[in-house]
């Protein structure tokens, strides 16, 4: 164990699945903000995130599952086209609570489809699981039930992301296979589902005090903020996000006591274009790492929280979408460390100078 990283294994057998979907019921806490007027855009995206620190008796209580869920919800409101009124967070639900949520979600999706808009749903789960399914306060919600609930949602695109142990088992349900994504630029022609999991079917998922969350969700968020934007078009596709999270999670867990994590996927998408998850052009503030900079960059907010960690190669600039405010950036370049403060202003791009 690296003494500089306090980690804990998510005692479970299935990884993290993020599903994009819309839900509105009393047990779910919705973010406050005005809903966009009907017809403001050609599609409407919903997100429902579930964080479960409590896996039941004899299970280690997780520290970051609920905060990871909140961070994913916040990110998709900032950069992912989700209106605050369409974002919902469910904390430590029971099995019955999750079942009720899915039923009410489906009712709401059917109503939303009547608008004629394209509907996309994202569902995210972080918590305990085992080889049978999710563990919610000691109760099981099987992977078969999860797949059925997802497949039954009335949406043009369903995205599921699971961050829990052995979550790769989800992609094996109903004969799911790993295959390359068929992505589209506009996202308007894609139909189907995409599942991302934080580990393979027989691996532990891990969280870390150093990153203040799970490794997989931490690097997924960093990638969606711009670190995964390989073609520098200011947008991060689902394929780019997966590849960034895969390589960073594997690299940072290879030397941990629980061993390496291999995120996996099941993309069953058809159409033309690219399924874009985040758009940096919509963010109110950008931090640019200039082309000549390279190394690993740690970006912390004014409260000292690590909001992004990126590994940058020289030769191309990299833009990171963040909220306006004060940040401290620390750069690790081989054996040397550099650090400096930066202030980001709304509507502006700030070039980092260390």
Characterise the protein shown here.
By secondary structure, the chain is an alpha+beta fold. It has two domains: 9-280, Rossmann fold (3-Layer(aba) Sandwich), CATH 3.40.50; 285-351, Carboxypeptidase-like, regulatory domain (Immunoglobulin-like), CATH 2.60.40.1120. It contains five helices and 22 strands. The strands form five sheets. Strands 2, 3, 4, 5, 6, 7, 8, 9, 10 and 14 form a ten-stranded mixed beta sheet that branches. It has a four-stranded antiparallel beta sheet with strand order 18-17-20-21. It has a three-stranded antiparallel beta sheet with strand order 1-11-12. Helix 1 runs parallel beside helix 4 (215-227). The radius of gyration is 19 Å and the shape is globular. Residues 1-40 and 166-188 have low confidence and may be disordered.
Major sheet size, sense and barrel closure: 10 strands, mixed
Number of helices: 5
State the CATH topology of the largest domain.
Rossmann fold
Share in helix: 10-25%
Q: What's the helix and strand layout?
A:
Layout: E1 7-10, E2 16-20, E3 29-30, E4 43-52, H1 65-79, E5 82-91, H2 95-113, E6 118-129, E7 133-136, E8 139-142, H3 143-151, E9 157-163, E10 191-197, E11 205-208, E12 213-214, H4 215-227, E13 235-237, H5 238-253, E14 264-270, E15 276-279, E16 285-289, E17 295-301, E18 306-312, E19 318-322, E20 325-333, E21 336-344, E22 348-351
Parallel strand pairs: 4-5, 4-6, 6-9, 9-10, 16-22
Antiparallel strand pairs: 1-11, 2-6, 2-9, 3-5, 6-7, 7-8, 10-14, 11-12, 13-15, 16-19, 17-18, 17-20, 20-21
Helix pairs in contact: 1-4, 4-5
